[in-house]
User: Fold this.
Amino acid sequence: ESEKADFNLVGMTCAACANRIEKTLNKLDGVKNATVNFALETGSVEYNPSEISIQEMSKAVEKIGYQAIPKQ
Ligand code: 9UX
Assistant:
């Protein structure tokens, strides 16, 4: 099972920020692949919904100092 979640990311001020968020998301159990676009201020996550929720992903991003707002 695999779903895709898209986020608007608030608070990135340099390209390394994008890498930090990407690494943080990719380390989470249930995340298969996360990519962050610094210029567009967006992130896209392929994940297993039986292992992780969108809210848990947002929380993990908030913990390192950014805001991840799920797109609808
Ligand atoms: Mo450089 Mo981006 O310290 O926070 S990683 S501005």
Notes: The chain has a mean pLDDT of 97. The longest strand covers residues 3-10.
